[in-house]
Amino acid sequence: MSPPDDIDDFAGLRPAFNDAGGRRRVSTALGAALGARGLDVLMPLSEEAFDGACAPVAPALRLRGLLGEGAPGAGDPVGAIIVASGGRALFQRFRAAPEAADGARNPLDRFTRAAVDAAAVETLGAAGVAYRTYFPFTESVPALPFQRLGRAAGLGGPGPLGLQIHPELGPWWAYRALIALAGDWSDVVPATRLGDGCAGCPAPCVAACPAGAVRLTGFSVADCHARRRTAPACHLSCDARLRCIRGVEHRYAEEQLAFHMAASMPAARP
Predict the structure, then answer these.
(1) Which listed CATH number (1.10.760, 3.40.109, 2.70.98, 1.10.4030) goes with 7-182?
(2) 219 and 180 in contact (C-beta within 8 Å)?
(3) Is 195 helix (H, G, I), strand (E, B) or coil?
(4) Domain spans of the chain?
(5) pTM score, whole prediction
(6) Each residue of 200-231: b (16+ CB within 10 Å) or e?
(7) How do the pLDDT tens digits run along the chain, 270 residues long?
(8) Whole-angstrom Cα distance, residue 194 to residue 187?
């Protein structure tokens, strides 16, 4: 995607973005650039919220530290934006991209990294905002506690499916990146409605799981994997996830669900 027509106007806002209107213009451009690539869910985080979420599990992780040499001076704010994708848009773009057919490992991860980095360069980079991007991929360093960060942004905790159920998207969304950046963006970044998607739900997913892995008391990875190793019906689909009553209109297409299920297929026992 090309930079917005008025991207040159951002030059006058460098480097501090103390003006809320200027930050709003940049964040709007960032949201449009990410959305054009299928990354349509943004969740802002303050420095306090990020550091508080990480403290119990990764005490050394500090948002300011993620910016490295680009971090502003003490007393100047920093923020973060969790980037996620909902529904089918990202996967549709991925299937049309070279990464989907090049035969190399982790095609969707590579596509996602390129998409997020390109959107950030076009907008944050063009406007002179100091930032760095981080991802929830297996090999990513440092490993960020994305579910905890999502809760700090306003989502509920993991439900019976072991997933955080978005109140609008249901189980049909995923974390894709985190952008650490100079400035306080919590009041200007557009965010979808957040909350606990499992609240008030009768949990039809529990009875739908043939392995008994989906429970009100918590998801059993061991029971899920044991069933998936032996039951072909559970290799590329999930009856329990399909029974979720939230976000039905955002449900993944069959090919997309099969792609993700194949990627998470447990290895056969020796």
Answers:
(1) 3.40.109
(2) no
(3) coil
(4) 7-182, 204-263
(5) 0.91
(6) ebebebbeebebebbbeeebbeeebbebbeee
(7) 333 334 344 443 344 455 778 888 899 999 999 999 999 999 999 999 999 999 999 999 999 999 998 888 888 999 999 999 999 999 999 999 999 999 999 999 999 999 999 999 999 999 999 999 999 997 888 999 999 999 999 999 999 999 999 999 999 999 999 999 999 888 777 667 899 999 999 999 999 999 999 999 999 999 999 999 999 999 999 999 999 999 999 999 999 999 999 999 988 776
(8) 15
C-alpha to C-alpha distances, 215 to 11, 17, 115, 209, 247, nearest whole angstrom: 53, 47, 36, 9, 20
Q: Give the CA-trace dihedral at 192, 194, 198, 202, to 10 degrees.
A: -70
- Other C-beta atoms closer than 10 Å to the C-beta of 25 total 21
Peptide bond into 15 cis (omega under 30): yes
Side chain identity, residue 256: Q
Q: Find where tokens 């194949």 sit.
A: 262
Structure token digits, residue 85: 């994708």
Helix intervals (H) in the chain: 20-35, 47-54, 63-66, 89-95, 107-120, 146-153, 204-208, 221-230, 239-242, 254-263
Q: Which phi and psi (to 5°) does residue 171 adopt?
A: -90, 10
